[in-house]
Specification:
The chain is an alpha+beta fold. The protein has helices spanning 45-52, 102-113, 123-129, 134-138, 147-152, 168-184, 224-235, 238-242, 264-268, 272-282, 294-309, 376-403, and strands spanning 16-20, 32-35, 38-42, 65-75, 81-87, 191-197, 206-213, 244-253, 258-262, 315-316, 320-326, 349-354, 359-360. Keywords: ATP-binding, Kinase, Nucleotide-binding, Transferase.
Length: 405
């Protein structure tokens, strides 16, 4: 196991300093970056059990599970609070720590900017002083990064060159998590975290759509109050009519060289037609519809549908589905491989299921409900998602045909 010795002279401890995962587009638990290829999140035993008993057919549709770590709060010499991971012995695979962490650089820049000369202030205090949430500080009303946040994102050498976009939702979740840990636990308290594959590590400008799947979001163990709350959310969103709703997304806009970002509150307000338009927006780079992505996305979704239909007793309550592609296209003169395709296939897409804290299946919860057959709500959502994408594909083909007349 590889661990990093702290570079902060004021602390002689060892560990891997964790930073916000800058491509987190949804969820409420903080997703943190361990290294370039690994992320971690607070451990929930039901989710850990799911990963440890994952059916073989589902493994290509979920992040690789890499084990567990413990995490604790630590304050550096400037007064900034952060989280540090202490790898556990049961993790047998060595994890390579990236020496050039973009997440670390951005988070430290934001913390430094949010601090006064006399007393360090976290980002949440900056937001409070502006009477806005952390996310609102970083995100403008139309979903593009605000000028304040964009101004911080200069190139690594400090020159005013290429600005590096990121999704502010991850910072929002991270700050909320730090605030909760500070108020509820001592700094030396150890917290268990799951280590998972960073499913967007291979993409230069990862475009991500986070979809909450199914017509029901509450788990079998939900209280009556929580059950009623989630049922209301579903009834008032596309979860009821389509079995799927948008929980967040980021789309790389090539002309602006930045991400267009939408959060879960945007997704909850969408009508069925609005959902269709949002799917088209996710596939649009600000200049054109990336129509070449539709066929590979549909193939992946249809393969996933086949797998879900074969999983008896599973209920993926409150889980999400990620659709991922690279917003940075290769130049048209990119070299071809021996198979005749361009290296780093510009139409490469990925589809991954995430968030299994409320997933149940036969044997997962002693004394609780065991469901029969495949998950009908999840299947309903997938079928509708596939149908809408097929409609977009057909509409694009008709447009091309009419344009060629």
């Amino acid at each position: 196991m590889v661990v990093l010795h702290s570079t902060d002279k004021g602390n002689n401890g060892v560990g891997v300093p964790l930073e916000p995962f800058l491509h987190q587009v949804g969820g409420h638990l903080s997703m943190l970056q361990y290294d370039a290829y690994t992320v971690c999140k607070p451990l929930i035993s039901q989710e850990q059990k799911f990963y440890e008993s994952l059916p073989l057919a589902m493994r290509c549709f979920t992040p690789q599970y890499k084990g567990t770590i413990t995490v604790h709060l630590r304050r550096d010499s400037r007064g900034h609070l952060g989280l540090v991971a202490n790898p556990l012995k049961e993790n047998l695979e060595p994890l390579q720590v990236s020496p050039d962490s973009r997440a670390v650089a951005i988070w430290q820049t934001l913390q430094h900017t949010a601090s006064s000369d006399s007393s360090p202030r976290p980002l949440a205090q900056l937001a409070h002083s502006l009477k806005e949430s952390t996310a609102q500080v970083l995100l403008s009303s139309d979903g593009h990064l605000s000028a304040q946040a964009s101004a911080l994102l200069q190139s690594a050498d400090g020159s005013p060159g290429e600005r590096r976009g990121f999704n502010p939702w991850g910072l929002h979740c991270h700050q909320a998590h730090l605030t909760r840990l500070c108020s509820e636990y001592p700094e030396d308290k150890r917290h268990p975290f799951l280590l998972l594959e960073n499913v967007v590590s291979q993409y230069k400008q990862p475009c991500i759509l986070d979809l909450k799947m199914g017509t029901r979001q509450h788990g079998d163990d939900a209280s009556e109050e929580k059950k009623a709350r989630h049922m209301k959310k579903c009834a008032q969103s596309t979860s009821a009519c389509l079995g799927v709703r948008i929980c967040g997304m980021q789309v790389y806009q090539t002309a602006k060289k930045s991400f267009l970002c939408k959060d879960k509150y945007y997704g909850r307000k969408l009508s069925e037609e609005g959902f269709r338009q949002a799917l088209s927006q996710f596939l649009h780079d600000g200049t054109r519809l990336r129509s070449e992505l539709l066929e590979p996305i549909l193939r992946k979704l249809q393969a996933l549908l086949s797998v879900i239909r074969s999983q008896s007793s599973y209920r993926f309550y409150s889980s999400s589905l990620l659709i991922i592609y690279d917003g940075q296209e290769l130049p048209q003169d990119a070299p071809e491989t021996a198979q005749g395709t361009t290296s780093g296939d510009p139409a490469k897409v990925d589809v991954r299921m995430i968030d299994f804290a409320h997933t149940t299946y036969k044997g997962s919860r002693n004394g609780h409900t065991t469901h029969e057959g495949p998950d009908p709500g999840y299947i309903f959502g997938l079928e509708n998602l596939i149908g809408i994408l097929q409609d977009i594909q057909e509409g694009d083909r008709m447009f091309e045909e009419l344009s060629g007349l």
